[in-house]
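Limitations

Structures in this collection are predictions, not experimental determinations, and the ligand pose is part of the prediction. Treat each record accordingly. The example that follows, with flavin-adenine dinucleotide as the small molecule, is included so readers can see exactly what is and is not provided: the inputs are given verbatim, and the output is the predicted complex.
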Amino acid sequence: MYFEDQYLTDEQRMMRDTSRRYVDRVVIPFLAQNRMREWEMDPAARLAPHLLEEADAAGLRSLGVPERFGGVTLEAATASQTLALVATELARGDSGLADKLVQNWKIAVLISRFAPEDLQEYWFTRYMAEPQFLMAHCLTEPAGASDRWLPYSVPEVNMNTTAVLDGDTWVINGRKQFISNGYDASLYVVYANTNDALPMSTGTSSFIVGRDTPGFEVTRCNETIGGRYMNNGEITFTDCRVPAANLLVRDDALAQAGIYFRPGKVLVAAKSLGIGLGAYEETVKFVHERVQGGRVLIKHQAVASRIADMATRLEAVGALLRHAARAVDEYSPDADVLCNMVKVFASHEIVTVCQHAMELHGGYGAMLEVGIEKYMRDALINLHSDGTTDVSNFKIVKAMFPESAGRYAGPEE
Ligand SMILES: Cc1cc2nc3c(=O)[nH]c(=O)nc-3n(C[C@H](O)[C@H](O)[C@H](O)COP(=O)(O)OP(=O)(O)OC[C@H]3O[C@@H](n4cnc5c(N)ncnc54)[C@H](O)[C@@H]3O)c2cc1C
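Predicted complex:
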C-alpha cells in the first residue's frame, strides 16, 4: 500500500510517523471531544490553540522554512513526495487543519526563494516565534479565476487588483476572495497587476503584505461546507501601501510561482487521500463491530464488496499521487499534466470513497456527532480548490493538444 515502508526513504518514514503520532494523539481526540466546534460562528474560537502549538513542537509547521531560521528543509530529491505523505497523514485527522499547515509550507518555499534576506529574516523570525502565525496566498478575485488558472494570456483577463509604484511604496487596490487561511493569517502573498499593457502572465507581480498594513482589511470569513478549520477569507486593499522592498517577483510572478502551484496540486490530492483513508479506517472498524442479519456487516458480501472498492480507489489515488509527486521532484516535463490529473482524479475518487463510508454507516453516517459525514463535506471542498475539475481537465487537454484545445475562446459577441 501507499504508506508501506518499502516505498519510503528514512526521512519519509520519520515524517510519516511524526505526523501520524500528532494526528492520533492530538487531532483525533480534539475532534472526537468537540464535534460541533467547527460550527462555532466566531471563526477565531474554532480551533483550540494547542493544535498549532503541538504541530509546531513536532516540527510540522516549519516545513519549507530555511534551516538557518530554525525550519525543516526536506531532502530536495524527494521533497514533494514527502510533503504529500505528511499532508495525507494530517488530512486523515482533519483536512482544514492540514490546509492551514500546507499553505504555510508552500508560502515559506516561495518566500525563501524570492524574498531578500532582510525580509526573510524579519518574517521567518516572527513565524518561528509564533505558533499561531499563518500565511495566505491571494490570487482569486471575484471575477476571472478560471481564466487565470488556464491561463488565458490576453489583457482582458488581467488581475483587477492593481499595484502602482509611488516613490518608494507600492499602492495596492482591489479585492481577493476564497483565500485559505485568509481570515486569520498574519502574512499574505498578494498578486496584482503592475502593467496593464501586458497580458497577465507578464504583467502580474507578487508582494508580501503584513496583516497590520494600513489599507489592508479582512472583510469576512467564508462559511464553507467542509475544511472549516481552514478559515477561508476575503480581503480588500484600499490604497494599501507596502514598501518597495516587499515586492517579491516583478511582472512574471505567475510564471515564477510554479514552485507553489505544482506541489499545490499534489497537496490537494494528498489531502483528498488523507480524508479517504480516515473514512476508510472508521468504516472498516464499524463493519467489524456492527451486527445485522445475525452477523457482523463485513460478512455480508455486498458490504465486503464496497470495502474492496474503497481500498482499490485509495490504492489507485496513492499510486498516481506518488507518480505525480515524483514527477515534480524530478522536474519531469510531464509534471504539470500529472499534477492536474491527480488533483482531479483524487478529488472525485475520494468523494466516492466517502459516499461508501456514509452508506455503510447507515443512519450514523448522517449524524454530526459521529463525524462520518464530515469526511464527505471535507472531500467535496477539494473538487473546487486549486482550480475546478473542468478547468483542470482543460489544462490537461491543452497540454496534450496545444494547437486545437489551447486557443483563447474570446469574449462573447
Ligand atoms: C476551499 C477553497 C479554498 C481556496 N483557496 C484559495 C486560496 O488559498 N487562494 C486563492 O487565490 N484562491 C483560492 N480558492 C479559489 C479557487 O481557486 C477558485 O474558487 C477556483 O479557481 C474557481 O474559481 P471561481 O470560484 O471564480 O469559479 P469560476 O471560474 O467562475 O467557475 C465557475 C464554473 O465555470 C467553469 N468554467 C470556467 N471557465 C471555464 C472554461 N473555460 N471552460 C469550461 N468551464 C469553465 C468552472 O469549471 C466552474 O464549473 C479556493 C477555493 C476554495 C473552494
